[in-house]
């Protein structure tokens, strides 16, 4: 835990509603080390983005952290408020959003947005910030960075804008990047470039990355380890190769089977029956049991076991069944 | 950009021509100026002679054309009532109205934007709720009633401020200003508030709703995620984006301030062009009415033109699109 850049321990996020409290994130724990990319996957509403927002302190009220701890480089940050949290944002934790078309301010030049961010966090002069802004754009692969520094966001294509967003997230050299669906809004041909860029920059700088996505292909391509979330809970956590080739949780197995592969021809794609439960109506026991083909009475009665490395939150992991 | 400007100026000139035409077509319904100009002891010959002399027996189109002919040369005719050139009378009266309008506009814009931003940022705060409730008064009370209420409270009951007139003025060239004397400044306060209150509440409510909309945008969230200070987020990122639609409305409201000055000037007996116009209507002083209407429409059109130019300064997207499109 001490060498991890980010440690989340038993984190729960709650939203009070008229019909009771819902928990979009429920008892989630994971670590991310320096230079490591942790993929967080799950369906919409599984709580993956909510966990990221909790880490950077941008939960929209009335959502709030109800329990658990968040540690960043050995400092506990979940209770930080206002100014103290603002100082961390951008400086220690960078964030990349889904849609590059809307995440840049249309009325400010990209140079202005870069220098503004650096001047907020780094003790450098305006001239130095200007120089670093050009360097930052070069680093993310914007051709003719020096000439384009005064351009406005609308003068860039979607992929180029996402590069600018990444430059912005990295310009104050944070130790953690939260990338929330960074490629979802992009053309498929550009997705791979952006993933490769994110991967290279974080390797080079030793930045830890929380890569939130619903795309198993992106996970396979970029992540070192993967956390699978279901209904606010962690279903499985492990190295990408292990999870992808030998999923233990039946939900992960279902996800893998329902990922289309170009090589697989036109065979019918597997579907997981039913839908993820609404958050105000999560069933007792293992939340996946109504959709699980292997569920037994124990799954309905007792909450799923604590997750641990190479152990899914499941009473009857897939490997064991294959053995028996 | 240049082509766009030229086109807009041409459009503006066309608008002015049409406004004048409409105005002249309506003057015949206002009444007969001859009635007022000649005393009880008039003969039919007198009436006919005067009518012929003033050109009132011609069709409105001919009258309008003659008016334009003179106006292009800076000659707006002679007032029926005062017997002096209209241009001279307007020049004398214009400073009073322009100073009143300027103070009202500054009051409305500064407080409107400030209150709008405040009520948007502290959306559920006590102060914000109070301002929002109080602004309903500004929106719903008619101007003359606000003026009379202010006079009652601050002039009649408290005796702090004058209830009518401009106070002492100082003559600088052709311009008489009330900014340089204490009584002139005191006299400006109540009329400015009366005239600007409605515009202020309108601007405030617009700024508030636009700002709330902008604060929900992704780029504001991204700005927060980059750890920018809330001052930078609210004023640099959010307010600038808020201003694009707000400027349009402010521009229209500036024109409205000058036009609505008629009511405020009547309530406070303010010696400006609005009061002049009201008196001109009572006397059917056609040259004065025509010149006043043209003056107001020139201001409206000029302000709109300036507003359109301001977009280019604020929004870089327009600069590129327009440059490419024309």
Topology:
The complex is a heterodimer of chains A (324) and B (326).
Chain A: E1 4-17, E2 20-33, E3 37-41, H1 48-56, E4 64-72, E5 75-76, H2 82-88, E6 93-96, H3 110-121, H4 126-139, H5 145-148, H6 158-170, E7 176-180, H7 188-205, E8 208-212, H8 216-222, E9 225-230, E10 233-239, H9 240-245, H10 250-257, H11 297-301, H12 318-323
Parallel strand pairs in A: 3-8, 3-9, 6-7, 7-8
Antiparallel strand pairs in A: 1-2, 1-4, 4-5, 9-10
Helix pairs in contact in A: 3-4, 4-6, 6-7
Chain B: H1 2-27, H2 33-37, H3 44-54, H4 60-72, H5 86-121, H6 126-140, H7 143-157, E1 170-172, E2 175-177, H8 182-215, H9 218-225, H10 230-267, H11 273-283, H12 286-314, H13 316-325
Antiparallel strand pairs in B: 1-2
Helix pairs in contact in B: 1-4, 1-12, 5-6, 5-8, 5-10, 6-8, 7-8, 8-10, 9-10, 10-11, 10-12, 11-12, 12-13
Question: Which key terms come to mind for this protein?
Answer:
heterodimer; A: 324 residues; alpha/beta; 4-stranded antiparallel sheet; 10 strands; B: mainly alpha; MetI-like fold; two-stranded antiparallel ribbon
Give structural notes.
The complex is a heterodimer of chains A (324) and B (326). With 324 residues, chain A is α/β, with parallel strands linked by helices. Chain A is 34% helix and 22% strand. In chain A, the strands form two sheets. A six-stranded mixed β-sheet of chain A has the order 6-7-8-3-9-10, with helices on both faces. In chain A, strands 2-1-4-5 form a four-stranded antiparallel β-sheet. In chain A, strand 4 and strand 5 form a beta hairpin. Chain B is mainly alpha-helical and 326 residues long. Chain B has a domain of 183 residues: MetI-like (MetI-like fold). A two-stranded antiparallel sheet of chain B has the order 1-2. In chain B, helix 10 packs antiparallel against helix 12. Chain B starts with a helix and ends with a helix. At the A-B interface, helix 2, helix 3 and helix 6 of A face helix 9, helix 10 and helix 13 of B.
């Amino acid at each position: 835990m001490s060498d991890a850049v980010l440690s989340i321990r038993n984190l729960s996020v709650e939203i009070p509603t008229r019909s009771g409290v819902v928990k979009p994130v429920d008892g989630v724990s994971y670590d991310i080390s320096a230079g490591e990319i942790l993929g967080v996957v799950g369906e919409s509403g599984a709580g993956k983005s909510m966990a990221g927002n909790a880490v950077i302190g941008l939960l929209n009220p009335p959502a709030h952290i109800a329990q658990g701890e968040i540690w960043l480089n050995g400092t506990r940050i979940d209770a930080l408020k206002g100014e103290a949290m603002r100082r961390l944002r951008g400086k220690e934790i960078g964030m990349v959003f889904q849609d590059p078309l809307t995440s840049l301010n249309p009325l400010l030049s990209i140079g202005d947005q870069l220098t503004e961010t650096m001047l907020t966090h780094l003790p450098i002069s305006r001239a130095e910030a200007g120089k670093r802004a050009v360097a930052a754009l070069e680093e993310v692969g914007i051709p003719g960075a020096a000439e384009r520094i005064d351009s406005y966001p609308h003068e860039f294509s979607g992929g180029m804008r996402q590069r600018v967003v990444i430059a912005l997230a990295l310009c104050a050299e944070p130790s953690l990047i939260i990338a929330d669906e960074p490629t979802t809004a992009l053309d498929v041909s550009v997705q791979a470039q952006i993933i490769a860029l994110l991967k290279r920059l974080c390797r080079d700088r030793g930045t830890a990355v929380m890569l939130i996505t619903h795309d198993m292909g992106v996970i396979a391509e970029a992540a070192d380890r993967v956390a699978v979330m279901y209904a606010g809970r962690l279903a499985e956590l492990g190295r990408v190769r292990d999870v992808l080739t030998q999923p233990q949780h039946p939900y992960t197995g279902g996800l893998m089977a329902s990922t289309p592969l170009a090589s697989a021809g036109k065979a019918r794609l597997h579907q997981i029956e039913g839908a993820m439960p609404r958050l105000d109506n999560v069933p007792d026991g293992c939340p996946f049991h109504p959709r699980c083909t292997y569920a037994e009475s124990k799954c309905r009665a007792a909450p799923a076991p604590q997750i641990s490395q190479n152990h899914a939150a499941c009473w009857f992991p897939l490997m064991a069944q294959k053995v028996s | 950009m240049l082509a766009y400007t030229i086109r807009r100026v041409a459009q503006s000139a066309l608008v002015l021509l049409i406004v004048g035409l409409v105005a002249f077509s309506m003057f015949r319904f206002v009444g007969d100026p001859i009635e007022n100009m000649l005393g009880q002891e008039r003969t039919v010959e007198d009436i006919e002679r005067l009518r012929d002399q003033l050109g009132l027996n011609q069709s409105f189109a001919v009258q309008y054309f003659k008016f334009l002919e003179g106006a292009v040369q800076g000659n707006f005719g002679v007032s029926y009532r005062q017997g002096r050139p209209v241009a001279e009378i307007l020049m004398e009266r214009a400073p009073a109205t322009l100073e009143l309008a300027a103070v009202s506009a500054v009051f409305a814009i500064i407080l409107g934007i400030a209150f709008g931003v405040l009520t948007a940022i502290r959306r559920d705060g006590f102060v914000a709720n109070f301002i929002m409730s109080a602004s309903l008064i500004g929106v719903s009370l008619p101007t003359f009633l606000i003026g009379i209420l202010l006079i009652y409270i601050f002039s009649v009951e408290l005796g702090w401020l004058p209830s009518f007139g401009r106070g002492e003025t100082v003559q600088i060239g052709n311009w008489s200003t009330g900014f340089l004397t204490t009584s002139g400044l005191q006299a400006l306060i109540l009329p400015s508030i009366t005239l600007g209150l409605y515009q202020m509440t309108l601007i405030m409510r617009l700024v508030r709703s636009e700002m709330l909309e902008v604060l929900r945008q992704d780029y504001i969230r991204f700005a927060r995620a980059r750890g920018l200070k809330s001052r930078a987020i609210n004023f640099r990122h959010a307010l600038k984006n808020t201003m694009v639609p707000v400027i349009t409305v402010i521009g229209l409201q500036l024109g409205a301030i000058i036009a609505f000055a008629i009511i405020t000037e009547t309530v406070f007996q303010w010696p400006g062009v609005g009061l002049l116009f009201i008196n001109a209507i009572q006397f059917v002083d056609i040259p004065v009415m025509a010149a006043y209407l043209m003056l107001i429409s020139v201001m409206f059109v000029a302000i709109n033109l300036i507003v359109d130019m301001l977009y280019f300064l604020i929004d870089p997207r327009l600069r590129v699109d327009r440059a490419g499109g024309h």
